[in-house]
């Protein structure tokens, strides 16, 4: 599971969950795969991200080094920062681990890079 995907996931469909975001990550197996740097893609994705959630997720899986706590205003001009963001979004992948609902502590497994957020019938709101 890429952190780009994580940035979009929530457990809001769970019964009695109001927000369900962000899900906490417990990574058991993380893989790094080099991808060609695409400055335009990264620059266009940044405004769509919840920056604070991305940084926290990167820290949770041990790859938060070098990411600023707050996104700088002129990030489009900072190629080094864009490369760090590209790395965390496109090259770092949680292969096995867990996503945990912040309100209920319900655990969702990540297996072979795929998060399983399927709910049991009695868990649906």
UniProtKB/TrEMBL annotation:
It holds the Pfam family Trm112p. GO terms for molecular function: protein heterodimerization activity. InterPro entries: Trm112, Trm112-like. It comes from the Eukaryota. Gene3D superfamilies: 2.20.25.10. One of its GO terms (biological process) is tRNA methylation. CDD domains: Trm112-like. SUPFAM superfamilies: Trm112p-like. PANTHER family: MULTIFUNCTIONAL METHYLTRANSFERASE SUBUNIT TRM112-LIKE PROTEIN, UPF0315 PROTEIN-RELATED. Belongs to the TRM112 family. This is Multifunctional methyltransferase subunit TRM112-like protein. It comes from Cinara cedri. The lineage of its organism: Eukaryota, Metazoa, Ecdysozoa, Arthropoda, Hexapoda.
């Amino acid at each position: 599971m890429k952190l780009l995907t994580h940035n979009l996931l929530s457990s809001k469909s769970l019964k009695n969950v109001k927000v369900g975001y962000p899900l906490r990550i417990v990574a058991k197996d993380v893989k790094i795969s080099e991808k060609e740097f695409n400055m335009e893609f990264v620059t266009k994705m940044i405004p769509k991200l919840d920056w604070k959630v991305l940084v926290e997720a990167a820290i949770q899986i041990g790859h938060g080094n070098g990411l600023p706590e707050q996104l700088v205003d002129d990030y489009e001009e900072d190629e080094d920062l864009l490369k760090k963001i590209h790395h965390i979004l496109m090259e770092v992948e949680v292969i096995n681990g867990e996503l945990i609902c912040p309100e209920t502590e319900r655990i969702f497994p990540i297996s072979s890079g795929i998060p399983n957020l399927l709910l049991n019938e009695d868990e649906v709101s």
